[in-house]
Amino acid sequence: MKSFFKRRDEDERSVSSSQILQSDSISVSSKTTTASSVSKKSGLIKCHVPFEQPVNPIKRPVVELDKEQQEKYDQLLAHFEKYITKDIPVNDQPNAPTHPILEEELSWLTKECFLRFLRATKWKLDAAIERIEDTMIWRRTFGVVNVPNHTDPNKLLTADLVAVENETGKNLIVGYDFDNRPCLYLRNGYQNTSASLRQVQHLVFMLERVIQYMPPGQDSLALLIDFKAAPAELNLSSKFPSLSISKQCLHILQSHYPERLGRGLFTNIPWIGYTFFKVVGPFIDPYTRLKTIYDQPFENFVPKEQLDKEFNGMLDFEYIHEVYWPKMNEIADKKKEVYMANFRKLESKIGLSEYDLRLEE
């Protein structure tokens, strides 16, 4: 199941440290430090917060469809132009009340969204329609979308709801890979809670956040999973997720976030890990498995300027929850505001390009 990716020339990906330093100041334990600063002793870049932009240039992608694919896309778009004029259920319960489709939901129905579902269903039109409609209801049911006067505030996916799950920094958005995919790190050794629905909610919340970090021209993420145990003094669990939680997460990823995984990297896998992968393997679709890479150095895929020293990068990253968590959410909220402002400027139509929606002035 291993894959190999040829490294690019160092000259093509080099960038000066001054390009990636961030000037935000933080206050921790009555001490003021710089969010990212170069340590004179080590030459490493001190970092406490996510990066807002990738190292490599942003380019408009070229999407080429053959005649049959274009016809399928046009039919799908025409279907949803009618679909959005009616009210839809507020959740997946029988006889659930209905509510008009919200602006947030319209902005989700992009050209790339339609194409992701078409590719995931092997260009079967009816299957793509069904999956998109099911996903729209699921997003309301799971609390991804807030339907006024219907969504339970206690189930709405917010930073406050899942903050406790990330107090140890077990999930991190830090940096971009060589293809401008935002990197979402899952650090199994930093598990701080027992198996529960909130763990699944936390993962979905972080998925929604990392999608907001995607730059123009990129609609997939890099998932970097590190099984290394946390420092002993933290007294944290490094057990593998329960099978039920793993199956639920895989179902959500494959059903409602198709084509979002651009690359999955696994490192520091203990011997029992390979047994775990054999157990969950049947629940992973074959195309996703092709994107997974085992025990290859992260530096082969992520610029050193945005990679932690633990993986032979240039960052001296330290997770401080009171610093990272609000900043991560602040950056994501700002990017979402840009996305929605562009959506309105472009007449709030469905089928718009995510490249245009993500462009910042």
UniProtKB/TrEMBL annotation:
Q: State the superkingdom.
A: Eukaryota
Localization, per the record, is: Microsome
A GO BP annotation: response to xenobiotic stimulus
Q: Which GO terms describe its molecular function?
A: phosphatidylinositol transfer activity; sterol binding
Alphabetically ordered keywords of this record: Endoplasmic reticulum, Microsome
- Which SMART domains does the record cross-reference, listed alphabetically? CRAL_TRIO_N, SEC14
Segment Disordered: which positions? 1-39
How is this protein annotated for GO cellular component? cell periphery
SUPFAM superfamilies according to UniProt = CRAL/TRIO domain (SSF52087), CRAL/TRIO N-terminal domain (SSF46938)
The catalytic activity, as recorded, is:
a 1,2-diacyl-sn-glycero-3-phospho-(1D-myo-inositol)(in) = a 1,2-diacyl-sn-glycero-3-phospho-(1D-myo-inositol)(out)
Q: Which residues form the CRAL-TRIO domain?
A: 161-319
Where composition is biased (Low complexity), the residues are 15-39
Q: List the biased-composition ranges (Basic and acidic residues).
A: 1-14
Q: Which PANTHER family match?
A: GH16843P
Q: Report what the protein is called.
A: SEC14 homolog 3
Name the source organism: Candida viswanathii
**Gene name on record?**
PDR16_0
